[in-house]
Design a protein that fits this description.
- Helices cover about 75% and strands about 0% of the residues.
- The protein has four helices and no strands.
Length: about 130
């Protein structure tokens, strides 16, 4: 589905975004919407990094993710991708900011695809178990 290079670049971009978010959350007020969104983003980044690691064969295939966590992660990446797509036109092509935004957008697309595939596999497995009963 994705090359090793694409997966490694996505992992690096997502890790960077996660680290920045972990620093930012410390400055946000408890209970604020910004803190809640940032916390959801951090959870989504961690989940995506785990899916990428599994895709690269770096963690066991049996790693399981709850449906709700997958849905929340997909929503968080959709929000983040929309945000980055909206700021992309503000950067001139070839600038470090533009390159970073393009790489982040691609990483988020890869993460969303892996999350959707995981959710579909989970749904198929659930359907199979229901039919066996």
């Amino acid at each position: 589905m994705f090359s090793e290079i694409e997966l490694r670049e996505a992992a690096r971009a997502i890790e960077s975004t996660q680290m920045k978010s972990e620093k930012a959350i410390l400055k946000l007020k408890d209970g604020s919407p910004q803190r809640r969104l940032t916390a959801q983003g951090i959870a989504a980044y961690a989940l995506a990094r785990a899916l990428i690691a599994r895709e690269l064969g770096e963690v066991p295939e049996q790693t399981a993710f709850a449906r709700e966590a997958l849905a929340q992660a997909h929503e968080a990446f959709a929000f983040a991708a929309e945000r980055d797509n909206s700021i992309l036109p503000k950067f001139s092509a070839g600038t470090p900011q533009h390159t970073l935004a393009v790489r982040r957008i691609r990483a988020f697309e890869i993460a969303q695809a892996l999350i959707l595939r995981e959710a579909a596999a989970k749904s198929e497995k659930s359907d199979l178990l229901e039919h066996k009963s």
